[in-house]
Amino acid sequence: MTSIDESNKEKFRSVSVDLNNDASLLIDIPDALCERDKVKFTVHTKTTLSAFQKPEFSVPRQHEDFIWLHDTLVETEDYAGLIIPPAPPKPDFESPREKMHKLGEGEATMTKEEYTKMKQELEAEYLAVFKKTVQVHEVFLQRLSSHPNLSKDRNFQIFLEYDQDLSVRRKNVKEMFGGFFKIVAKSADEVLISGTKEVDEFFEQEKTFLLDYYSKIKDSTIKAEKMTRSHKNIADDYIHISATLNSLSVDDSTKVEGRVASDQELKLTELLRYYMRDIQAAKDLLYRRARALADYENSNKALDKARLKSKDIPQAEEHQQQCLQKFDKLSDSGKKELTIFKGRRVVAFRKNLVEMAELEIKHAKLLDFYELFKNELQK
Amino acid sequence: SSPPPPPPPPSLPNLLCPSMHGYYWMFELSPHWSQLEDDEAKDRFDVDVSVTNPEKVGDGMNAYMAYKVSTRTSLTMFRCKTFSVRRRFSDFLGLYEKLSVKQSLHGCIIPLPPEKSVVGMTKVKVGTDDPSSVEFVERRRAALERYLQRIVSHPSLLQDPDVREFLERDDLPRAVNTQTLSGAGFLKMINKASDAVNKMTLKMNESDTWFDDKFQEVESEEQQLRKLHAVVDSLVTHRKELCGNTAVFAKSMAMLGNSEDNTALSRALSQLAEVEDKMEQLHQEQAASDFFIFAELLADYVRLLGAVRGCFDQRMRAWQRWQEAQSTLQKKREAEAKLLWANKPEKLQQAKEEITEWESKVTQYERDFDRIGMMVRKEVLRFEVLFVSMHSELCFCFKFQLIKFWEAFLPEAKAIS
């Protein structure tokens, strides 16, 4: 069972900016418990809005609750023209757990010190995964609270306020929608690409850009993850070496430290991963709009057919009008959303890169210290 | 050779400034080591070998260093009392090759030659007379000298015709296919040498627990050494992986930067890609230098251990010889007793002579055994002293590697911001 504190959270609050500034609705996850696989988040809300019963309250939530919230928002027609913030990924403790298992098996072959050190490393890894997942869930909620439309969503309010278990509601929702949207998602890209003729240049550009950017950022994310893994392997090797050297030493004065931090790479990987998901959400918006356009075109064809047959013309006209309205609404809000999205992304990237550089400079200052240490020894 | 200077007190050795590639993190073990070995040479047999006068022969990449190998001896198996020949590095390697094939014949550990160093030699060939290449040649000269001295201090190896040929023959046929004694090959060789020792176990009634204890210590240190070797191997592999992954990542980031429509961000991402690319190069250099630094230190460590084990080995053989002589003496006495019974005077006389002969042999071998025992003690104590400094060097080297690992990020941080 692990929990986090405020000061540590600051380090990880990097992928998005300008969230949680509006005092009318402030959300955070101050606390979380990890029991085996399940993580229980404590969602804490502070609000001045009258829609809520109390000005301040906390509820326990599981990962599945967040997914439920995300899915209901996605399935809501009214929000088709919005970029729904990407759902937080499931907490994944697989990698550290596997390593812990291996460590347990190999305990007999290593010295006590080595074992302790490796265990410490693994515990740190567990903690890092834990902190990451808390942060990603928190950001999801904060994105919602800072969105003018989504923050008013009834389900969102229920999520924040309802002090009973949400699992009953979750089951109902599943039955109702049956994951319909998920099934179609796979062919979404094909629809976009094979494409409906695009009349609006803004959307044409966005489409091209997002499709291209998405594939590139996905590629970068995968490669960044590989790089981080290599770094970890090297860090482990250093631990083994230092432990072996220490076991040879006659006294304590020659102990070595085997730790190598690679914070800056972790940050970059996180950033890429987050924006990969965000861009997928933007693509989803484009997809929905493309579908609306297709529907509109189909309704046009249906209207023409009806006129030809002189049958059911009023219904056909009405349907066509609805489709047109829906499409226009999506186009309008979509344009707004995508423009905001672009700005947000640029700001976040820049902030991240700056933080990365600062972190490296901090390391460099540490290097100066080592330099002095080395000079002392040489005297 | 000139009288040796008094040995400096054992303390943390001087740390030399590393060259650009960090290959010369060879700490000043040599004053201690060669001093102690000088003493040994006088302890043992009347052969004194020195390696001097390094001279560059030829030009460009085909150039090589030739060393003067001088021998001074009172042993009759050699043609003269003093003589010298010119040898190049590959000749020394060739000698090792020839001897290692006959390892089981000699029943002792063949001393390991110094390692090939491509970078060091290239500098020398190219002709830069900078201090680091002068230093390199001097180290090599010293290492070659120690190598020969160890060989000639083994009575068995000294008898070997290849060794004599090496010392005496004017024109030695060029050694071909000398194993690349750098990189993975070198460490493999170290392991082979250790394995060979492990196979030579003679059972001995150890009356003196001191020897037993020390032997155990040496063995356990050897085990740790192997472990260290395995982890260093793993480290090198992982570094190579990191190189590859960083390069691939850098390319991916560059592509991303190209896709980016915001110009400032696009520039920043492209810069990041460049930084990652540079890091890859640094990682590569680091991988190479990691390996060489550690391999050199580990190799010296192994040589130390090898020398100690060799001593234990010699002591066991001396004991064996003594025991065998005792049992032969016993048999002779029994034979004499039988002859007394049988009453054959001529044979009896012979038997008495043989007994006297063997009695003196037994005495001598017992003295040898004791003498070697004392030598082992000295050797072990020397080893312990050197080991402490050697170990702290390994640790320091390791710490420095960590620093360099972080250092790699420094200039790049400035580049991004």
UniProtKB/TrEMBL annotation, chain A:
Protein transport among keywords: yes
GO terms, molecular function: dynactin binding; phosphatidylinositol binding
Domain PX: residue ranges: 1-166
Keyword Transport: yes
InterPro entries: AH/BAR_dom_sf, PX_dom, PX_dom_sf, SNX5/SNX6/SNX32, Vps5_C
PROSITE patterns in alphabetical order: PX (PS50195)
Cellular component terms per the entry's GO annotation: cytosol; endosome
Keywords: Protein transport, Transport
UniProt similarity note: Belongs to the sorting nexin family.
Protein name: PX domain-containing protein
From TrEMBL, chain B:
Principal localisation: other
A Gene Ontology cellular-component term: lamellipodium
Keyword list, A-Z: Acetylation, Cell projection, Endosome, Membrane, Phosphoprotein, Protein transport, Transport
A Pfam family it matches: PX
Domain of life: Eukaryota
Membrane topology: Peripheral membrane protein
Cellular compartments annotated: Cell projection, Lamellipodium; Early endosome membrane
UniProt GO molecular function: phosphatidylinositol binding
Domain PX residues, every copy: 45-174
Family from the record: Belongs to the sorting nexin family.
Function per UniProt: Involved in several stages of intracellular trafficking. Interacts with membranes containing phosphatidylinositol 3-phosphate (PtdIns(3P)) or phosphatidylinositol 3,5-bisphosphate (PtdIns(3,5)P2). Acts in part as component of the retromer membrane-deforming SNX-BAR subcomplex. The SNX-BAR retromer mediates retrograde transport of cargo proteins from endosomes to the trans-Golgi network (TGN) and is involved in endosome-to-plasma membrane transport for cargo protein recycling.
Name used for this protein in its record: Sorting nexin-2
Designated gene of the protein: LOC114459976
